[in-house]
Amino acid sequence: MNALATYIHNLDPVLLDIPHTPLAVRWYGLAYIAGFILGYLVLLQLSKRKLYCVEADKLGDFITAVCIFGVLMGGRLGEFFFYWLPEHGLSGLLEDPLWVVRVWEGGMASHGGIIAVLLVAIWYCRKNKLSIPAVTDGLAIVCTIGLFCGRVANFINGELYGRACSATNALAMKFPQELFTLPADKQVQARVAIDHALGAPLEKFMFTNEAGQITEGYADAVLRLAREYPAVADAIAPFLTPRYPSQLFEAAGEGLILFIVLISMRLLWRNAPAGIFSAVFCLLYAAARITCECFKEPDANVWYGITQGQLLSFIIIALGIVFLVIALKNLKSTPSLQKN
After folding, report:
1. Strand partners, 306
2. 44: CB partners within 8 A, 6+ apart
3. Band of the pLDDT at 105, cuts 50, 70, 90?
4. Which domain holds residue 222?
5. Distance from the CA of 152 to the CA of which of 11, 171, 230, 285 falls in 20 to 30 A?
6. Domain count of the chain?
7. Judging by DSSP bridges, how do beta strands 306-307 and 302-303 pair with one another?
8. 189, 258: one domain
9. Do 235 and 254 fall within a single domain?
10. Which has the minimum average pLDDT: 29-33, 131-135, 188-192, 236-240?
11. DSSP three-state, residue 116
C-alpha cells in the first residue's frame, strides 16, 4: 500500500493563539491578507510600467474597496446565498443570525467574490471615467493570487476535501473533518475508539476555564487531539475515507497556472485590447473549476451529476464571452489603457 494513502491530515488551522484571549492568528485570515498585499504589489508594478490604467497613487484606495466590498463581502454573501441558506434555510438563519459575519470560521464563495469584484470595478470606473474592461483586466490577473492563497488555506483547514479515491492512489489522504459527517452510529463507534486511545473519556482532555467548565467544542477537541496524539489519529483512521486533496488541485488550476498564463500575456502583449485578460480569466477559471469539481466532494446540491460549483461556472463562462466580444471590438480600435 502507498504510504501517502495512510496520511491523515493534521495541519493546524491556527498559527498562533493570543494568550489570555479567545483570539488567534489563523492561516485562513493570513491567506486573504497575503492575497491582498501581493495583488496590490503586482498591480503597482503593472501601473508603473504603464500596463494598467489605474494610476499608482490611486491604487491603494481602489484595492481597499475591491478587497472589502468585492472579495470579503461578495465572497461571504455568495457563500450565504449559494450554499449556506439553501442548506440551512430561514430557520437556520434565525437560530444563528451572526453566522454571516463570522468570516474567520471560513466559508467564502469564489463565484460570489468574482461577481462582487466586477460590480465594484464598474462603480469605480463610472466614478473615475475609466474603461471598465481595462480596469477588470488588471483585477483578473491578481484575482488568481487570492484564489491560490484561499485554496491553500482550505487545505490547511482540512475543509472542502475531495471525493473518495483508491487507497493505493499516490495522492490519497484522509481528512478528520469527515468524521462529523458520518452516520450517528459510526460517530458513536469513533467516539468509543477515541476514548480507548486516550485511556480516559474525551472530556478530560478538553480545554477548561479556571472554574473547570469546558470551553472547547467537541469537534475542535477531536481535531486537536488527532493532531497531538498519534494514537487518536490511528483510532479514527478506519472511519475515514481516502480522498483526493482537491483543494491543492484548485490552488494550482484556478490560481497558480492561471496567474502564470495571464501575467505572461500582460507582459508580452503590451497593446492587448481591453477586456482580453478578463475574458481569458473567466473562461480558464470556469474550465479549471468545472474540472476540479470532478475531484471535489460536492458541498451543495447536485443536479444530474452537475455540482452547484459547476453550474455557477457557466455564469462565469457567459461573462467571459461578453468580455471576449468587447476585446475583439477593441482589437483594432481602442488601446487597452485608453480612458473613456
Report:
1. 303
2. 56, 59
3. low
4. 176-239
5. 230
6. 2
7. antiparallel
8. no
9. no
10. 29-33
11. helix
